Automatic annotation (TrEMBL):
Highest taxon, organism lineage: Bacteria
Record's protein name: BadM/Rrf2 family transcriptional regulator
GO MF annotation list: DNA-binding transcription factor activity
GO cellular component terms given for this protein: cytosol
Gene source species: Allofournierella massiliensis
InterPro entries for this protein: TR_Rrf2-type_CS, Tscrpt_reg_Rrf2, WH-like_DNA-bd_sf, WH_DNA-bd_sf
Amino acid sequence: MHITQESDYAIRIIYCLAKNQKRMDARSISQEMSVSLRFSLKILGKLVASGLVASFKGNRGGYELARPAAEITMLDVIRAVEGPYQLSRCLEECGECNRGASGICAFQQVFRRISEQVNRELGAVDFAQIVASENQCR
């Protein structure tokens, strides 16, 4: 099981902005993170709409983090591009049980517990930590 490519790229884009600590244009972000410009712009639009990234128009335009990297978690980024993380569709409000059951079953209880644990872990990792650990690896 993997996160989507869009979430992977969104995490890279936020990392790029956190690491560089400056306003960057979409083309530079795209090149530095090896993400196509078109896909970068789509993701940046979602990140701006979610309030994680600020965009600026004009000569000195570009993108920068809307708040400090220490206040942006991996969970924030995944939610911005995909919505809430849930291991199984059966956890959604209108999720349909693929076996036709109604109510809560043993599988749903397990999927909910795992989803909550993954969300806690993703919410515990912020981009200041990631940048700091990357700097220690050099």
